Task: structure prediction
Amino acid sequence: MSTRPPKAREGASPVGGATPAAAPLGVFDSGLGGLTVVREMRRLLPAERFVYVGDSGRAPYGPRSPEEIRSLSVGQSRFLLDRHGCRGLVIACNTATAAAAETVRAAVSPAPVVAMEPAVKPAAAATRTGTVGVLATVGTLSSARFAALLARHEDGGRVRFLTTSCPGWVEAVEEGRTSGPDAFALVERFVRPLLEQGADTLVLGCTHFPALRPVIADVAGRGVAVLDVGEAVARRASEVFTPLASEGNGGLLLYTTGDPALFACGARAILGLPETPPVRRLVWGPNGTLSED
Result:
């Protein structure tokens, strides 16, 4: 994958007036979930500057058609490159990766794109019982990309993958309902059946789900491993973007198509920030483009 930054497009305005060589990285997701990946990338790339778009106004992506997800993904990608001159993108959304990764790559070439892949491979290596539970959205679970991923790691039938969509989980994270009795009951509804079928390893196949990780771990118990790919994606981003990561002073600019105040509260919690960050609002135009409200 090329690490050469694309030439800044006419009208692009990199954060802080950066030159194209030191331009920020763009990250997008269906909402708050991708910030679990940004959290890990900021840890590994402390000098990097990020521009993040969370499409909370259209969340969740799971029930949407592949065609619509591709349109939304390209719209966010174009905003990040055209408005901010981002030198590369991270698709911090499993559903968008499954439906639109190749479409996005074609739309932003030659800018490099880092995408998601559920932690199926490490889960297959870690399981002792041979049963792995995968928690994801229906959009991810129904994709050909995901089916091929499972097939590659079944190890001749040694590993059995139990998959389940988790209606309500994305909405709970977007609304800040990530702890307490209601969150426990919501998580238990989908995790308990996997445990009863022998799963000793759980894969969080949506970037929203790590926000529920303490509750998931509580439901699952000590003997069950809970895996997500935030750290792995951050390492991949550090490999792809390291040649430019030492320039600049770091930073994060947040956008949402939803409620900025609600998004800011969620961002503060996920990122562990001392104060509520400023969030700018975006609106979708009729031609599939994003603009500031």
Observations:
- Residues 60 and 109 are 27 Å apart (CA to CA).
- Confidence is low (pLDDT under 50) at residues 1-19.
- The chain has two domains: 15-116+231-292, 120-228.
